[in-house]
């Protein structure tokens, strides 16, 4: 009888050791994935900062003024006169669309979305 109990406990110890090893291995794999994601995030942040600096350089007013003067003839650029600038009151009114006009409904924000995906239950709306 004692012998079977010893074998049972030995089996439990082996099973626990195997389970512990698997958990440890999975944790190491997840830690490696986390490190890779952190590296990718850092690279993306560096890229964003580089793009911001590039945008600041490209949109600098002095640079744009030089380019406008250089390509004035080719692009037909002209200086904006004061009478060309209008206020918001002078803008035309929002166009009125006939009901049922698909594009007009989309612009007015009244479009009915008939498309349902698997994540939306029947009868449930957005």
Overview of the molecule:
- With 126 residues, the protein is mainly α.
- It has a domain of 76 residues.
Distance between the termini: 67 Å
Average pLDDT for all residues? 84
How many helices does DSSP assign? 4
Strand segment count: 0
Main beta-sheet strand count, sense and barrel state: none
Per DSSP, what share of the residues sits in E-state strands of 2 or more residues? Answer: under 5%
The helix-strand sequence is: HHHH
Broad shape: elongated
Q: Could you state the oligomeric state of the chains shown?
A: single chain
Gyration radius, in Å: 33 Å
Helix content: 55-70%
Give the helix/strand class. Answer: mainly alpha
Low-confidence stretches: none
Task: Identify the notable features of this structure and list them briefly.
elongated, mainly alpha, 126 residues, single chain
Write the layout of secondary structure elements.
Elements: H1 2-58, H2 61-70, H3 72-75, H4 102-108
Structure summary:
With 126 residues, the chain is mainly α. The protein has helices spanning 2-58, 61-70, 72-75, 102-108. It is elongated, with a radius of gyration of 33 Å.
């Amino acid at each position: 009888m004692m012998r079977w109990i010893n074998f049972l406990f030995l089996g439990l110890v082996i099973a626990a050791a195997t389970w512990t090893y698997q958990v440890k291995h999975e944790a190491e794999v997840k830690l490696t994935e986390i490190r890779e994601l952190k590296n990718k995030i850092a690279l993306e942040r560096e890229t964003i900062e580089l793009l911001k600096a590039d945008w600041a350089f490209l949109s600098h007013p002095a640079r744009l003024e030089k380019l406008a003067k250089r390509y004035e003839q080719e692009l037909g650029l002209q200086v904006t006169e004061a009478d060309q600038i209008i206020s918001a009151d002078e803008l035309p009114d929002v166009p009125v669309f006939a009901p049922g006009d698909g594009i007009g409904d989309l612009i007015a924000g009244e479009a009915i979305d008939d498309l349902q995906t698997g994540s939306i239950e029947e009868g449930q709306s957005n």
